[in-house]
Amino acid sequence: MTYNTGFLLERRTIRKYTREPVGDELLNDLFKEGCRSSTTGNMQVYSIIVTRDDDMKRKLSPLHFNQKMVTEAPVLLTFCADFNRFSRWCLLNNAVPGYDNFLSFMTAAIDALLVAQTVCIAAEARGLGICYLGTTTYTADKIIEVLKLPRGVMPVTAVTLGWPAEIPDQPDRLPAEAMVHKEVYTDYPDKEIERFYSGKERREDSRQFIRENNKSTLAQVFTDVRYKKEDNIYFSKILLKVLEDQGFMNH
Ligand SMILES: Cc1cc2nc3c(=O)[nH]c(=O)nc-3n(C[C@H](O)[C@H](O)[C@H](O)COP(=O)(O)O)c2cc1C
Questions:
Q1: What Rg do the C-alpha atoms of the chain give, in angstroms?
Q2: In this predicted model, what pLDDT tens digit does every residue of 170-183 receive, in sequence order?
Q3: Residue 41 and which of 57, 83, 113, 161 are 20 to 30 A apart at CA?
Q4: Mean pLDDT of 183-191
Q5: Strands 46-51 and 129-133
Q6: Sign of dihedral through CA atoms 222, 59, 161, 148?
């Protein structure tokens, strides 16, 4: 039997798109396939906001730190954890929803990420390109305003989508053995960690990264430049407040 999964090993994130539109019919096919993803209790506690309008993209652009893909891609999709719709259905049916808590946020966030990834795979299988936007959780408070998300709805990720105008080099990955444990978690001897990351460290693009950022190791580029502790704490505080405002903190 042959499986058509080869494209998964060939994929890479696409950040430049042609002007060719992504039609509604195609988008609907992606959603239909995406919404076949596994979902907790078959509740489908997620929503997907489609942004095509240039004005809306311009409003969202600074909230994604002005990453060019947001205004250049034909479509931007924001995937949200959503207990609003399901809770409303409960209330209409003499059932008391108990989803204003952190566990329910996690449940809905997992659902939203599963559907997001299936939509991405469905898109990539057709030759479309995608880029996730981690900025979604950094500025969730403002994205909520722009997209008019009610209480019970929380953006968890966004994806730009379009026909590729570039074929960038494929980034590296750690060998699978670095992530896979048999039966129980086996903690790593230092030597193993060094071995797993050595390929990444040896790459010319990594060395260039280190030089450009005036650092002496690749790990420092992550800890001191890209994902700094003070930024993580700052954005965590905002995120916790947004979760409270959206009704996910155990009231
Ligand atoms: C949750 C998440 C958030 C991401 N956020 C961004 C982003 O804000 N900007 C960006 O250019 N790429 C973003 N990416 C893409 C990653 O940088 C990319 O997947 C990674 O470097 C590996 O590259 P590849 O997908 O081409 O294999 C994100 C990916 C994920 C999964």
A1: 20
A2: 999 999 999 999 99
A3: 161
A4: 98
A5: unpaired
A6: positive
H or E, element range at 133: strand 129-133
| Structure tokens belonging to residue 92 | 């209409």
How many Å lie between the centroid of ligand 1 and the Cα of residue 222? 14
Q: Are 54 and 197 in contact (CB under 8 A)?
A: no
Q: How far is the CA of 244 from the centre of ligand 1 (A)?
A: 27
Assign 47 to helix, strand or coil. strand
By alpha-carbon position, which residue is closest to atom 18 of ligand 1?
13
CB 246 less than 6 A from any atom of ligand 1: no
Q: How confident is the model at residue 1 (pLDDT cuts 50, 70, 90)?
A: low
CA distances from residue 137 to 15, 31, 43, 157 in whole angstroms, order as listed: 19, 22, 23, 7
Mean pLDDT of 6-12: 95
Q: Does the Cβ of 160 fall within 6 Å of ligand 1?
A: no
Name residues whose C-beta falls within 8 Å of residue 223's C-beta, 6 or more positions apart in sequence: 229
Helix boundaries (H) for the chain = 6-10, 24-34, 54-60, 69-72, 84-92, 102-125, 135-138, 140-147, 176-179, 190-202, 204-212, 218-220, 229-245
Contacts of 77 (CB under 8 A, 6+ apart): 48, 49, 50, 51, 116, 119, 158, 159, 160, 161
Ligand 1 neighbourhood includes 67 CB (under 6 angstroms): yes
Q: What is the pTM of this model?
A: 0.97
User: pLDDT band at 126, cuts 50/70/90?
Assistant: very high
With a 6 A CB cut-off, is 57 part of the ligand 1 pocket? no
Is the CB of 13 within 6 Å of ligand 1? yes
